[in-house]
């Protein structure tokens, strides 16, 4: 698996045809094809970032991660 820096992760923002990746607890997930992540955005949250704090505060919590493909880790 690829190890991403914060700067590399930011390139995967889901805009202009780019893939959309998010990091949670040091793991990087692909949300590109997820219907909840249109153009790299989910309820005001943006792809290409570490969303650990945001997902912990979300109503669904970490349970949604089981449905996503892990594509790497965050340095």
From TrEMBL:
Kindly give the SUPFAM superfamilies that the UniProt entry links to this protein: Cytochrome b5-like heme/steroid binding domain
Q: What Pfam families does its record include?
A: Cyt-b5
Q: Which InterPro entries match?
A: Cyt_B5-like_heme/steroid-bd, Cyt_B5-like_heme/steroid_sf
Source superkingdom = Bacteria
Task: Kindly give the SMART domains that the UniProt entry links to this protein.
Answer: Cyt-b5 (SM01117)
Q: Which residues form the Cytochrome b5 heme-binding domain?
A: 4-75
The protein's name in its UniProt record: Cytochrome b5
Q: Which organism is it from?
A: Lactobacillus gigeriorum DSM 23908 = CRBIP 24.85
């Amino acid at each position: 698996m690829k190890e991403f820096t914060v700067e590399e992760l930011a390139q995967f923002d889901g805009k202009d045809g780019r893939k959309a990746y998010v990091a949670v607890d040091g793991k990087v997930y692909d949300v590109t094809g997820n219907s909840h992540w249109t153009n790299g955005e989910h309820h005001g949250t943006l792809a290409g970032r570490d969303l650990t704090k945001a997902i912990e505060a979300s109503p669904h919590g970490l349970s949604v991660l089981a449905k996503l493909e892990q594509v790497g880790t965050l340095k």
